[in-house]
Amino acid sequence: MIIKSTRNKLVRTQCKSVFLDSNFIMEKKIAATNRKAFHEYHILDTYEAGIELFGSEVKSLREGNANLKEAYVTIRKGEAWLVGVHINPYSHVGFDSPEPVRKRKLLLNKREIQKIKISLDQKGLTAVPLKIYFNKDGWAKLELGMAKGKKTYDKRDSMKERDIRREAQREIRNRDR
Questions:
Q1: Considering the domain boundaries, does residue 42 fall inside one?
Q2: Helix and strand tally (H, E) in the chain?
Q3: Residue 49: which CATH number?
Q4: Between 20 and 30 A from 76 (CA), which of 21, 84, 115, 151?
Q5: In a domain, 173, yes or no
């Protein structure tokens, strides 16, 4: 939502940015989400990490051109790497654009990397990216979750719970009319 103050009036429009008397403040803007991860995994813990990107990749993310479906996180030589994220090339870049699918370094503290490595060494746990977003300062961030795979009956149970919740919300809305 954009809020501009002009001569004691507030003008509101739909957007994710806020303007207040020429001071630019951004809210959290989600660039890409991995909805499939919540269907296929139990998310046990989440971490926030920065991503090392080229400038054209950042611009492409601002346009919302990213896909997290096949992505995962690995730890190699004490560094966290994001593998399998597809970021489409920016539409206004010349001939020299980075590859859409490549390894991207994650910016985490040593302690966080050690915690993730310990949990990845456990059988059945994996690190899955949940969403890429821009924080209030405009930096691209990745929310990654430590996940455990669901069985087919768990997936059916979660779908059943979601349908029950949706029906309850629909009943509440219809009752108010």
A1: yes
A2: 4, 13
A3: 2.40.280.10
A4: 151
A5: no
What does the pLDDT look like over 10-57, one tens digit per residue?
A: 343 333 444 444 455 567 788 888 888 888 888 999 999 999 988 888
Q: Indicate the number of domains in the chain.
A: 1
**Residue 149 DSSP SS3:** strand
pTM of the model: 0.71
Give the structural domain span for 62. 28-152
Under the phi-then-psi rule, with left for phi > 0, alpha for psi from -120 to 50, and beta for the rest, what region is 22?
left
Give a yes or no: residue 76 inside a domain: yes
Task: Give 149-172 pLDDT, tens digit per residue.
Answer: 888 777 788 888 889 999 999 988
Show the DSSP H helices in the chain as ranges: 35-40, 55-62, 110-121, 152-176
Question: Residues with Cβ < 8 Å from 124, sequence gap 6 or more?
Answer: 148, 149
Whether 23 is in a domain gets the answer no
